[in-house]
Amino acid sequence: MGEACHHHHHDGPPTAADVERALGDADARLTAEGERMTAARLRVLELLLAAGEPVKAYDLIARFGTDGQPAKPPTVYRALEFLERKGLAHRIASISAYVACSSGTIDHSAAFLICDCCGATEEVAAPVAEGLDRAARAAGYAIVRTTVEAHGRCPACLAA
Amino acid sequence: MGEACHHHHHDGPPTAADVERALGDADARLTAEGERMTAARLRVLELLLAAGEPVKAYDLIARFGTDGQPAKPPTVYRALEFLERKGLAHRIASISAYVACSSGTIDHSAAFLICDCCGATEEVAAPVAEGLDRAARAAGYAIVRTTVEAHGRCPACLAA
DNA sequence: TCAGTGGTGTTATGAGATAACATCACATGC
DNA sequence: GCATGTGATGTTATCTCATAACACCACTGA
Ligand SMILES: [Zn+2]
Ligand SMILES: [Zn+2]
Ligand SMILES: [Zn+2]
Ligand SMILES: [Zn+2]
Fold first, then answer.
1. Closest residue in chain A to residue B127, using alpha carbons only
2. Which ligand is nearest to the CA of B108?
3. Carries keyword Transcription regulation (chains A, B) (predicted)?
4. Tell me, which fold does domain B16-159 have in CATH?
5. Among A7, A42, A119, B64, who pairs with B71 as Cys (CB 3.0-4.6 Å)?
């Protein structure tokens, strides 16, 4: 984050009620699909939702235990892999961080706007990759998943 | 790479003459710009050009010495940072690898098509990010650089 | 009851990247 | 020539990110 600006305030995390609701929805949906929404998976998703911005894996590991005890790395990485597979979270490769999915859509390749100053991110919807799809078709590639991450400044940091 | 297919042949590395020419061009251009194209930087660029596909940083480190001696990590990472800053190489975040720029354009945000089977990559030109630019403007973000990486299968691996 | 499957706990290690500091090369101005 | 500033390198150590491997457990269906 910020080399140049020092105000780390963006829209901020969702309320506890928002987190609860999202967790409940996710649990219900996955259970209905026959998936097992276990305690570790719920906990990691809860941490991601509560953060409201990208979180480093080792921060999740540190915050994992409600009593302050950290988790073992594989516990969190396994949960992240599951959540990502199920479309509930995304890995942001350019900053090696993870974020809860903010889109209602189930199966999607997300694109992100990332503020290098305050860390705010915005998940934007699909059509951003239409040009990429065209290029892939032209080159004869069959695309499975895409990583689209734009770095810059968010409106708040631009205004400051 | 490949879980599913086992033919690691794509267009393959450029000839030694191609590499030499590209190195000479890069050297001339940067020298003209007042930059110092040092031995380490040339060597790393040579390794990237010769590979003709993304290379892991620690592979560059291992191959660095012409006598088989590895480099120290900072040597290679500094060279990579310089080459990337000058538009001669790109980092591919989704696979933590580096590749020589295959575009003539000087200052550009590249997009990549990456074959998960054989490792081939294709650098495709700018307009793929037009949708992203539109989304960024709509959200009020000022974009500085983008990471666009599409994973899938190349034509050769699809045919097999 | 007994496999088979998928999830977890735990230890250890592999892979990717950088901090910090001393030293060196080179250009500029005296 | 010689001081001085700047950018590049050498070197050591360390930090961050991620996974391998294996034992154990819970649930399911024969
Ligand atoms: Zn999403
Ligand atoms: Zn911001
Ligand atoms: Zn390029
Ligand atoms: Zn291929």
1. A131
2. 3
3. yes
4. Arc Repressor Mutant, subunit A (1.10.10)
5. B64
